[in-house]
Records
---
Amino acid sequence: MARNAKHERPSPADLDPLIHERLRLGILSALALHESLSFTELRDLLETTDGNLSVQARKLEEAGYVTCQKKFVGRKPNTSYRLTARGRNALESYLQTLEQMLPPIERVRAAAVARRGALRPAPSES
Amino acid sequence: MAGGAGPSPGAADHILYGNKYLTELRHGGTLSGEPMDDARTQQAARDDLQYIRRTLAAAGHLSIIPGRGMAVIGLLAIAAVAANLRTTGTPWAGGVAPEPALVVWAALLAISLVIGIGTMAQKARRQGQPFWSPVLRKALWGYAAGMLLGGVLTGAVIRTEVLALLPAVWLGCYGAALVAGGISSVSPVRWMGVCFLLLAAAAALLPAKDFGLPLLAVGFGGLHLAFGAYIAWRHDG
């Protein structure tokens, strides 16, 4: 991502556009907290439709930000998602950029959000 | 800051992206690479962070409610009702000692707790989630309050020998526990709590001698079975 001149705050153009869409940001944020979430859990959590979640999750998967595992539990298909190390780095970088957009006094709170998003260790790439 | 500056490299992507999805964001920010003043940029950043905070808080919802375990508890509750009917009599039936009937329900409570905790831990393991998580502790606070109140009121009802109140007390306190604990869990838990509260209202209005046991069967048996099966189907086990 491009940055403005040195010592200037980043602009919205510096934010990763792949993450900046609300639903995709929500998917990454939720997966930052849980090692793995099922399709159903993500859909309920983000209050979206099957189709929308499927499309946005696929974009993240294509970018290597999440991995998708499909398996059968009995006869029922079960899809689960995990955040990759690349996805975690991208989310952290996104949070840092947001943090730098704020005045210094607000950065402490923003940093707390970033820390919470990075509570769990980065999963291994699969 | 970007004010007055031309679009930076990559801005074209942002514009395309913004046009495709949300020309105007819900949070009032912008996805385009057009120049923004400091105040607007900061507000957009604040809104994004707020959204992330909300998502993280919501992601903390308890999703390891064990549907199958709940259904097993429902079956055991029906067995307890059958034991009351055939062997011990109901606690509120006059002319027989209430202790054996109460022991049946106390045993059901103890076994249900073991099954509930065991199947919840199993589901957490299967989903790769921590069991003793902050969200479970939060849910337990809500759940425990109703259950403790149920214990206290049961003691008071037994001491004052107005045992006909027991169905209403048990259904009501358990319903309140589910509604409170369910706030940080999946929505069927809350709705099951609401159904228990409605049954408690019926139990308070109808004579326990005729309706007490059927209402307990519908509540602890039927609702556990129905909601347990739904949760198992809809929320992965």
Note: The CA atoms of residues 52 and 235 of chain B lie 24 Å apart.
---
Amino acid sequence: MEKANKDYKSIIQSEIEKNAKKRKIVNNIVTVILFGFVIIAIIPLVSILIDVFRNGVAAFNLNFLTLPPGSIGSSNGGIGPAIQGTFIIVGLASIIGVPVGVLAGVYLSEYASSSRFKKFAYFVRLFNDVMTGIPSVVIGIVGYITIVLTLGTFSIVAGAFALSIIMIPIVTRVTEETLKLVPNSLREAGYALGMAKWKVVWHIVIKGSKSGITTGVVLAMSRIAGETAPLIMTILGTSLFFHSLNSPVDALPLRIWRLASQPYPFAHQQGWGAALVLILIVLSLTIALRMISQKRGFQLSKGATI
Amino acid sequence: MDEKSRRLSVIKTIRSKSNESKFGDKFFKGLVIGCSIYTIAMVALVIYALSEGSLPIFLKEGFYFVIGTDWNPVEGSESFGALPYIIGTLVSSAIAMVIAVPISIGIAIFVNEMVKGRIGTLLSFIVELLAAVPSIVYGLWALFVFRFVILDYIEMPLYNALGDKLSIFGTAPFGLDVFTAGIVLAIMIIPIVSAISREVIRAVPDSQREAAYALGATRWEVVKTAILPYGKSGLLGASFLGLGRAIGETILVTMVIGNAVGMSAIPTSLFSPSQTLSSIIANEFNEASGALHLSALIGLGLVLFALTLLINVGAVFIVSRVTKSHSNLRD
């Protein structure tokens, strides 16, 4: 009797051990596969960075960065107007996008819940989500119809307007989520001192979450700096430097596209160079962003990465 | 100044200050509401501009514009149909999703559950750097470098081995086709989908994990039995957001999809060139030959807008339904 019992025990034990071994092996196999996925995702990044740097550095010199493009097919000129145009257009888009985005975010966080406009806040949020999802090429068409057709010319205003539509929902979302992190006790302290609501919002809530809002703004800027599609139908591209608000201008992404579609090796080399400049601008913004957000302990939420 | 008049003056200043702040309150509230209205107005403007701009083509072609396959911008014999580009858009995005979703969720699981701490953070930071690379740079790289890699190491072997047996490998590959576009799109959306998936997985309460560990589960079993079921709806939402991005992506697709027009833009195999809604808009917008051609391109923009709207709304709907059934389960 006792012996039989012992047998059962050892059988069960050995079964469990066998099973555990199998499960451990499965676990290890899956771990390796998942690690493989990470590697698969990292390879293109490394390849893109290496190729852009290797091919782009060859084009780099002072003339390349400052001169306007030469005539098509020639081997001189640079991307000066494109660099200048990118900075101006991102700046102009921010002039529209940042105040509107931040204030709409302030509304959603500070005013929406208390007022009788709950339905309205719901719609603002809904339309913001819709806006985030609009493809950028569609926004370009809208810029063309509303500004280019009205003014009768391709212009930097149309481009900046289109980019601001891309920018606003990003800034709004990040602002709203940042402001919600401000503890209520700070607001109450302000009210207890007899401050008006707008002063509480401005001096305590907004100023207290400056770094979070900056994060959203920088994120949106780095996003629109790389947009190409909306620029095709709004600023058109030119080989001249910026000279007035209502004439075509150039921008880096657009210039890269035009260079890549030319059949000349020199144009391709310049395209790589322009890509390097663009990547340097965007990546330095992104890394600066990481530093801001990590220093302040501010976590980018899922809305911010979209 | 006696006591009484001093009091009066204090009261006066307080009153004027409070009037001031009342005015400030009203003004500021008006300002933030105005900005909120502006954001709504922008969406309305998008819808209005697209409808107005595409009116001529819908008046001429009617519903045939959506299901037609012709694309003839020559003045006098114009005929426009959007179907090939709708198909091209869906096929290239589907290829991207098939590749990107498992990889992205796998990455999110790996960096959150398998290697916690600094290495996980570092790996996810590197993957998410990809999200910062502008799509035009992806396009340039895909056009000059990556397409030859795909052509030599994936497409040619597949075509040589299976080309005469399976029709989806039946076109002699050239490197600029719907397959390449799908793969590059996948590379582009992996960081986006994996970043959101990571948030979803991070939001799974530790008690779920601990319960599974307490039963003796291995790491993978914890993921399989506790984390994935719990985060199902969020992961689905992340995938749909990636799909929305893939469908709307323009410049990258334009550079590698081969830009076929009309009937030939309907892909007959993985390796045939195609065209998406957004890529044909980018290709032809500046060279539109007439008002009707331009209107047709704007019409394609409207179709694209409707498609992305459908997907986004669908995502919200599915996520809310899954979440609901989830909370029912918990009750």
Note: The CA atoms of residues 201 and 221 of chain B lie 15 Å apart.
